[in-house]
Amino acid sequence: MTSSELIVLAGCYGSGKTNLAVNLALSRRREGRSVIAVDLDVINPYFRMTDGAALLREAGVECLFSEFVNTNVDLPQHFPKLRTLFSEPPENTTVVVDVGGDDTGAVALGQYAEMLKKANAKVLLVLNKYRPFVQNTADARESISAIEAVSRLSFTGIAANPNLGRETTAETITSTVPYYVEMSRELGIPVEFSPVLEELVPGLELPWPVLPIRRFLKPGWEIE
Predict the structure, then answer these.
(1) In whole angstroms, how far apart are CA 91 and each of 2, 12, 26?
(2) How far apart (Å, rounded) are the C-alpha atoms in residues 151 and 95?
(3) For residues 97 and 151, what is the distance between their CA atoms, to the nearest angstrom?
(4) For residue 186, how far is the Cα from the chain centroid?
(5) Could you tell me if 6 and 89 are in contact, meaning their C-beta atoms sit under 8 angstroms apart?
(6) Cβ-based neighbours of 89, under 8 Å, separated by 6 or more
(7) How far is CA 173 from CA 11, 95, 167, 178, in A?
(8) What distance in Å separates the CA atoms of residue 43 and residue 205, rounded to the nearest whole number?
(9) What backbone phi and psi angles, to 5 degrees, belong to 200?
(10) What local confidence, expressed as pLDDT, does residue 42 receive?
């Protein structure tokens, strides 16, 4: 893998986008690639990629985050560098973009839609079957359509992320395979991979690749 790579992670609120974004950035960095992490989450002050900034920078990941993130000023920020970054991603570089949840958070993507399309960005739907409003395909399709409409982008693949936080087990994951197979067929896009906690990976069999991850970030109600 030597060319540029743009990966946009979007989906419903609470789907696990941010922790996946941090893990994906670190994974690509371990492969020897240059990595740039972009935080476009202007919705959720408790669970943002910015919270993993120290860890990412220590690993050599460049971070583009809003100067107002984690303050009481919560307005969308427009990074001048993003237009260049999305139009002409550097060679041998992976750009990982964490987008706010639901259609409200995806609005920030709209202004960059044409650039991302021309750059052949992967727009991954991070989908957690256990979250409200996506537990059946009809409800999920409605939420997904709203995200695509405001972002002006179509999802190119699914990151199947079924989890129940600390209560997640191997059965939690494997029991949802039929759901993701159906969602893939319904949406006409492939399941690209499943992010799975490292301790659950041994012996786990899924019909698509697994990305071993660690749980770096805590939801707001667990932050002390």
Answers:
(1) 7, 31, 18
(2) 18
(3) 13
(4) 21
(5) yes
(6) 4, 5, 6, 95, 119
(7) 18, 28, 11, 11
(8) 35
(9) -100, -5
(10) 61
Torsion angle, CA of 81/35/63/50, rounded to 10 degrees?
130
167 vs 208: CA distance, rounded Å: 23
Q: Which of 201, 215, 193 is nearest to 169 (CA)?
A: 201
Among candidates 29, 9, 5, 32, which has minimal Cα distance to 90?
Answer: 5
CB 28 within 8 A of CB 94: yes
Q: Which residues contact 39 (CB under 8 A, 6 or more apart)?
A: 48, 49, 50, 63, 64, 65, 66, 69, 98
Return all residues near 204 (Cβ < 8 A) that are at least 6 apart: 170, 173, 174, 196, 210
Q: What is the mean pLDDT of each run of 10 residues along the chain (224 residues)?
A: 85 89 95 92 55 85 69 48 86 91 80 92 95 86 91 96 93 96 95 97 96 77 35
- pLDDT of res. 46: 43
Beta-bridge partner residues of 121: none
| Distance between CA atoms of residues 191 and 185, nearest Å | 10
Separation between Cα atoms, residue 119 and residue 114, nearest integer Å: 9
Tell me if 172 sits within 8 A of 163, measured CB to CB: yes
